[in-house]
Specification:
- The chain has 425 residues and is mainly beta.
- The chain has 1 helix and 36 strands.
- It has one helix at residues 2-22; strands at 29-30, 36-38, 41-46, 56-58, 63-64, 67-74, 77-84, 90-94, 105-107, 111-113, 116-121, 124-129, 134-140, 149-152, 155-164, 167-176, 184-187, 206-216, 219-230, 235-244, 249-262, 270-272, 275-280, 283-288, 294-299, 309-312, 315-319, 324-329, 335-340, 349-351, 354-359, 364-369, 375-379, 398-400, 409-413, 417-422.
- Strands 14, 15, 16, 17, 18, 19, 20 and 21 form an 8-stranded mixed β-sheet that branches. The chain has a 4-stranded antiparallel β-sheet with strand order 3-36-35-34, with helices on one face. It has a 4-stranded antiparallel β-sheet with strand order 5-6-7-8, with no helix packed on it.
- A hairpin with a 3-residue loop joins β35 (409-413) and β36 (417-422).
- The longest helix has 21 residues, at 2-22.
- It is globular.
Length: 425
């Protein structure tokens, strides 16, 4: 056993000391189509202090001041680290979860209030002080909640079940950010009383309920509520409603997104230029924020379950499980371009007209021109000097604009390293 640990240490030490020299920093490689498959990096950081171990995922980029949060390991311990984007230096480390330290740190959703980061993991809630990496508060609750989380002023919302003789529903529970006090049900939906609700994983007579909350831009008391109701044959009706949190009244309610749908996969909506964008199943939809009415719906041959979509520069850009990325006109939903990519990818990030993400099925770092769909990068970490059987992970890709004498940057994680590249120009 000791020899295995020693060899693991030597292996990681070898990579940390030697592998950077194996890659010619002046060398840029392209494939037959002119797509960049290797490019010089500004710096790289080893993610494991002694031996390689699962370290978790951060699905959406977490930025704070001049740093980004990444998952790392120390022996069998998993932790979060804030690293300096200019040089990769670790600014602080955090591993104060209720679960064993060896448990991978997975963060799907989070919210910020000033210097506080809040995220939910089942029955456990965490609030970190981002200035020093200390635990501001943490709670192990008696019931489990979904990972989704939302914020309104000094309150946060998480989503859990309410059980009663009438059935089981999902509600938005509200808690206080500064204290982390036990959350209480706050936003619930009205369900038809004459439906024979089916039993399901959430409990008997499962009705459905609240899926997401989004803040309405420029109106910090208005919340866009995504919700659904279950029909007897286990199909779903899914809706948007607009809720006034100050008056506790609905501005408008139950504008249909999709009806009689088998399955409810539904990514968190995006608000852009007075419109609500979402993907549900194999469709991307657009609704008017003022009224909730659906403006368009575009259907595809598969879903956007993993990579999702973003809205930038008047375009909706998503990577479908067909293995193609699509660009749509945000006003009309018309398809502008498509390009072959990869399935099972990570979430998309955007900077200066370029979309970046990791294609999970091929484990490459993609960069696509948002206006045309032109493929720019498909970077292979093996061509950067990694002999280990590694690829880029579907962790978040971090994009940083130019600042002072520092160029714009893109940071992506392989199984071994965090790589920092100069962004495409």
């Amino acid at each position: 056993m000791k020899s295995i640990i020693f060899l693991s240490f030597i292996f990681v030490f070898f990579y940390s000391c030697c592998s950077e020299n194996e890659y010619d920093q002046e060398k840029r490689q392209t494939d037959d189509q002119g797509v960049v498959i290797a490019t010089p990096y500004l710096w790289k950081k080893l993610l494991h202090k002694s031996k390689i171990a699962p370290n978790g995922f951060i699905i959406r980029p977490i930025y704070y001041k001049n740093g980004v949060v990444i998952p790392m390991t120390n022996d069998d311990d998993c932790m979060l680290a804030l690293i300096d984007v200019d040089n990769g230096k670790t600014l602080w480390e955090w591993d104060d979860e209720f679960s064993p330290k060896r448990s991978a740190k997975d963060i799907w959703y989070y919210v910020f209030m000033n210097n506080l980061l809040i995220y939910q993991d089942g029955s456990r809630s965490y609030c970190l002080n981002m200035d020093d990496g200390s635990t501001f508060w943490k709670y192990a609750r008696e019931q489990s909640f979904r990972d989704e989380i939302a914020i309104m002023k000094k309150k946060y919302f998480i989503f859990g079940a309410i059980y009663s003789d009438e059935g089981t529903e999902m509600a938005a529970y509200m808690g206080d950010i500064e204290s982390g006090e036990t959350v209480t049900p706050k936003i619930r939906m009205d369900f038809p009383i004459d439906i024979d609700y089916p039993d399901g994983a959430w409990g008997p007579k499962f009705k459905g309920g609240v899926l997401y909350l989004n803040n309405a831009p420029d109106n910090d008391h208005l919340l866009i509520v995504s919700h659904h109701e279950v029909l007897p044959d286990w199909t779903f009706n899914t809706y948007f409603s607009l809720y006034n949190a100050e008056t506790e009244e609905w501005v408008w309610k139950k504008q249909s997104i999709i009806a009689n749908y088998y399955g409810t996969f539904f990514s968190q909506p995006c608000i852009y230029d007075g419109k609500i964008y979402a993907n549900i199943g194999c469709s991307i939809v657009c609704h008017d924020l003022a009224t909730g009415k659906q403006l368009w719906r575009e259907n595809f041959n598969n879903d956007f379950m993993f990579t999702g979509f973003i809205v930038e520069d008047g375009k909706v850009i998503g990577n479908c499980e067909t293995g193609y990325a699509y660009g749509l006109d945000a006003k009309t939903g018309n398809r502008l371009w498509s390009v072959k990519t990869a399935g099972t990818g990570g979430r998309m990030s955007y900077l200066n007209g370029v979309v970046y993400f990791v294609g999970g099925s091929v484990r490459r770092l993609f960069a696509i021109e948002a206006s045309t769909g032109k493929m720019i990068w498909k970077i292979d970490p093996h061509l950067l000097g990694e002999d280990y059987d590694a690829g880029f992970r579907v962790n978040a890709v971090y994009t940083l604009p130019a600042k002072g004498n520092q160029p714009a940057k893109v940071i992506a994680l392989s199984d071994l390293y965090a790589y920092c590249f100069e962004a495409y120009r």
